[in-house]
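[job 0417] fold request received: NAD kinase
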Amino acid sequence: MSPQRRRVAVTIHPFRPEALQAATEFVLGCNARGITCAASSDDAARLAAVAPQADLIVLEHSDPELMVVFGGDGNILRAAEWAVPRQVPVLGVNLGHIGFLAELESSQVPTLIGTVADRGYQVEQRITIDTVVRDHPGGEVLWSSFAINEVSIEKLARERMLEVLVRVDDRALSRWATDGVLVSTPTGSTAYAFSAHGPVIWPDLSALLLVPLSAHALFARPLVLSDHSVVAIEVLPGGSPGGVVWCDGRRTFDIGPGMEVEARLGAHRLLLARTSEQPFVDRLVRKFDLPVDGWRAAADRARRDAH
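[job 0417] inference complete; emitting structure tokens
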């Protein structure tokens, strides 16, 4: 009996022609090395239209060793909805903007083919958040999901703030009138939480980040919490008539006064495939295009030019 061919999944940005082009090159290159590729029915149809000779199977019937994502971080988050529960590593090829989760650029597809064929990648683990919505504190669970970047609780009405009571480990922390609250992973600390002036947390640190959004309060600072902590956010009457919970800006549930949103360390990890050992500080500088020398170097140059 011949051994089963290796299988690698691909997912493609739905609106970028360059993503389809890069994915087609990758699929055909993998096929030439004896690897079958799996894709969703929509992505498989797009690939088959431009490469009818491709060896493709439907994702739902596959058991891939790796999922390669052609798109930006948003596409990686979408792919993770399938990959995280199955603990399949994800490798991102960036066709978006910053692409913090992505490993390679589309011009590096030939290198990627060889790396995948040789299994020349390492797998990095990132924590996730599990969240539930209850009808009241400690009550019946109405909805549950998980997040890779963050769970956000946001107001629905522009003219009214949310009134919330935040508890950590069953202890009241603070009551806020606020536009919302984020509970973020270290991975998410360079996403929504970063825009809300939260700190950047190194991704190999196992911790949770609690960030109020424009809270009207004397104490409304971002807090870094233990990964054992459980955050509970109760929506109080008297503020906005309702709010909404978002997980990674993709999965959502409406909430109202009296309900409670609970967030804790997730049961599953995001497995990110990396093709090289790159210190996070290098990635931070490169992705944000940070001017390492900043204005001090400009001042030094001005002084030298003056002399």
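[job 0417] notes: The longest helix spans residues 17-32. The chain has a mean pLDDT of 92.
[job 0417] exit 0
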